[in-house]
Specification:
With 188 residues, the protein is mostly helical. It has one domain: Jann2411-like fold (Orthogonal Bundle). The chain is 51% helix and 6% strand. It is built from six helices and four strands. The longest helix has 21 residues. It is globular, with a radius of gyration of 19 Å. The termini are far apart.
Length: 188
């Protein structure tokens, strides 16, 4: 599946946002506005003034995070399509061609001056929509490690990725399985 730069970035933003939610005994990584500013500062989101972010932005981004989680958990394409359509419509999507910051022509789906929430809902919602239209919704996954559950988009050629990070979750489970086999072999 060929995914353009903007769609890939938007999918990464969805994943990063989803993974700020409390999970496996962790605290919410977006507890307050300074944390939101720090989070957004790590992403490549054009046109967002970090200093201007407020509690309203924090509430809106958390709501968007919940809606993205519903898309990841959707049981069918029609269910996911309904969620995505609602999200994109609520953002007041205004597609426009732009070439900024050294990037060639591409499409932004948010209106100029849009809030951070509308920006994420429009661009990220459209990226999720592109996956759905391509019949690739099953690429939206949660890590299979029992103590993880982090979100990721499986962009592997054969759609075989099982863990959010093979160097952490995947390796940890493989080492645990190896040690269990060794204990079992030693007990004989």
């Amino acid at each position: 599946m060929l995914i353009n730069h903007d769609t890939r970035c938007a999918l990464e933003h969805v994943v990063e946002l989803l993974n700020t939610a409390p999970a496996a005994g962790e605290a919410d990584r977006l507890p307050d506005v300074p944390a939101l500013r720090a989070f957004v500062g790590t992403l490549t989101i054009s046109g967002v003034d970090l200093a201007a972010l407020t509690g309203d932005d924090l509430r809106g981004v958390r709501e968007a995070r919940d809606r993205f989680a519903q898309v990841f958990a959707a049981g069918s394409s029609p269910e996911a399509a309904g969620l995505i359509n609602e999200m994109v419509a609520s953002a007041g999507t205004t597609p426009q061609l732009t070439d900024h910051d050294g990037y060639d022509w591409h499409v932004h789906y948010f209106a100029p001056g849009a809030s951070l929430t509308d920006h994420l809902a429009a661009d990220c919602g459209m990226a999720l929509g592109f996956l759905l239209v391509a019949g690739e919704l099953e690429r939206l996954r949660r890590c299979e490690a029992p103590d993880c559950g982090r979100a990721f988009v499986d962009l592997s050629r054969n759609r075989s990725r099982r863990y959010c990070d093979s160097r952490t979750c995947g390796n940890r489970l493989h080492v645990a399985a190896y040690r269990a086999r060794q204990r079992q072999a030693g007990a004989r």
